[in-house]
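Morning!

As promised:
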Amino acid sequence: MVTVLLLVLGFFAGLLGALTGIGGGVLLSPVLALYFGIPIREAIGTSLVAVITTSAASSAVNLQRHTTDIRLGMTLELATSFGAAVTAYLVGYFNRNVLEGLFAGFLLYSSITILVRGGKVKAEDADDTTAIFKNGEVIIPPYEPKRYPLGMAASLVAGALSGLLGIGGGPIKVPVMFIFMNVPLMVATATSNFMIGVTAAASAIVYYRRGDILVQYAAPLAVGVFLGSLLGARVAPRINRKVVVYLLVGVMLYLAAHLTFHLLRGIL
Amino acid sequence: MSQVREPAFDRAVGLVLGIGAVCCFLVMLTGLISALFTTSTLPLRIERVGVLLMLATRGSRGRCLLPVFPGKR
């Protein structure tokens, strides 16, 4: 029964992740901790496997479309992987309440970021369609990434959060690449998707060595996430993304409130 | 210029990631299905292999292709 529930959970996390461009870890870790009774550290480690699965499935498609800037991604990965590996090691010494508090805070931050981006979905989509698809070919407008030191610093923070909370770090990487590094949104999203898997793999290895990845939970989640991501990528052009974005933000705010309540009940 | 693409390399890395993801999916699915028919630790071992395969796929991020595309990176 638990396996079926995990499959369904993974499927919806993958579907929402593919439709909104997030890894899915931001939903999986709190749900595993709150509703499956898994300690938060193991929940984080287990959700990392699902994050890697989503990233592998989606970045394979993006690479075929040539929207991923591998050179930029590999440069920034130096910082994200370092940050992820260090915090994944340190998380063993963190108090459970601190992790839950950090997660609730990150859920709130991500909700606000997604809402701000969600309001601009239509305008960005229109720009991307006219500028990028010509005769079935993907044409990226000319650009030159700027402010590498800032990008590296932000990537270090995103990597650290990934290792700490079992998330992809997309809500940090995409705005930094898009706003500060002069990278087109489509390239920033695809490159972030590519980086997420490598970052998560760096910290997942540390979690695995410590025994914090529960394989019996990770496998059904990964299978569900894989199927959900595939379906999400297929139906994405036909779905009103604003509705999905508001649904996702609603779920994230609910989880943030539940985590805060859970935390306060544990402290008081 | 960062936007200068190497399409063959992009395609090859995409292929490695795609094949890796599908293989891991199949291995984990095998583990889940075998859990329906046996109570031994075999399904858990199969699922563990799937998880490790996924970590290896993403950890390598196409580095295995460097000998095929010398001087590209």
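The first helix of chain A runs from residue 2 to 20.

Hope this helps with the figure draft.
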